[in-house]
Design goal:
The structure is a homodimer. Chain A has five helices and seven strands; from the N terminus they run H-H-H-E-H-H-E-E-E-E-E-E. By secondary structure, chain A is of the alpha+beta class. In chain A, the strands form two sheets. A three-stranded antiparallel sheet of chain A has the order 1-3-2. A three-stranded mixed sheet of chain A has the order 5-4-7. In chain A, helix 4 packs across helix 5. The radius of gyration of chain A is 17 Å and the shape is globular. At the A-B interface, strand 2, strand 6 and strand 7 of A face strand 2, strand 6 and strand 7 of B. The structure holds a DNA duplex.
DNA sequence: CTGCTTGCAAAGGCTTTGCAGAACA
DNA sequence: TGTTCTGCAAAGCCTTTGCAAGCAG
């Protein structure tokens, strides 16, 4: 049962919003363009779950900074580099999670809201054997929720 | 920790491919049209994970039976009635799982293949407290896999 | 300079929708 | 016969792509 560790270890890359963003991006092999730095500032100001659209809106809140294509390029790049995690819970769009620590999610299907499950509140025991010829790339646990008062 | 039970119990609706499909559909409040019966026959011939596209292809293998619109209508209907479970693991398409028993999945990102995790091979202990005002609608555990030889 | 990035618009893929004709009860 | 369902094509959404202009080092 060591593959969970082997799997998560290399992903723990973290951007500290207090430090210089540009040099942190360089450190992980990303050329720090103006757009990338601004996107990183938003994503890593605190742990967030954002769709590409939300990032686009927030980046350009005070004037045009980055185009839609650049948002997608950058989010994809950050994901490949392990700075954000893609969370697939909604068939209509991908969420990008700037919290790279091991944790899981609640997804409220009524509100579309994605929230963290504190990792100590969930325990996975007895992990399954992986199919032959495969290696673990990630574990996701999603609790789908409904708002109690919602008229389904 | 009783909400897991409360959550899964109502979903255990099962179509037996050996019995008359039409009357089983009626029993859950679905008018058994020719198209729906044929789609059900494919889905419930055995536990399956299929995309809408795959269902479309298989239904029409021996001549035109159902259109794309009807496939989507029917799969959505079956999902609402609890006959199939929607599995969201691939941002590009939804999978429909005709196995309604409680279980979890491996998803091979290289091959796009979705397979079951025998439920006894995975144990969730210490379930999280749900956010106030919400109720559980489902739990999903997804192990993302890579093929070991794949050139990422 | 030289290559990597950006941005625009167009294209793509999956899913939904509108509406006329057909099937079900 | 009234209601529900089907099918076609068009529309919608999110995401990707092509390519010329711009920026980083």
């Amino acid at each position: 049962m060591t593959y969970t560790l082997a799997m998560n270890e290399p992903t723990i890359l973290k951007i500290d919003p207090q430090q210089d963003i540009a040099s942190q991006l360089r450190k992980v092999g990303i050329t720090p363009t103006q757009q990338r730095v601004q996107i990183a500032e938003i994503l890593f100001s605190r742990p967030r779950h954002m769709s590409a659209d939300q990032v686009l809106a927030m980046v350009n809140r005070d004037g045009p900074i980055a185009s839609k294509a650049t948002i997608y390029n950058t989010l994809g790049l950050f994901a490949r580099k392990g700075l954000v995690r893609e969370v697939i819970v909604d068939p209509s769009k991908v969420f990008y999670d700037s919290n790279t620590a091991v944790h899981h999610h609640f997804f409220n299907e009524d509100t579309g809201e994605l929230t963290d499950i504190p990792s100590h509140e969930l325990l996975l025991t007895r992990l399954p054997e992986l199919p032959p010829g495969t290696e673990a790339a990630g574990i996701e646990v999603i609790f789908r929720l409904r708002s109690q008062d919602a008229a389904s």
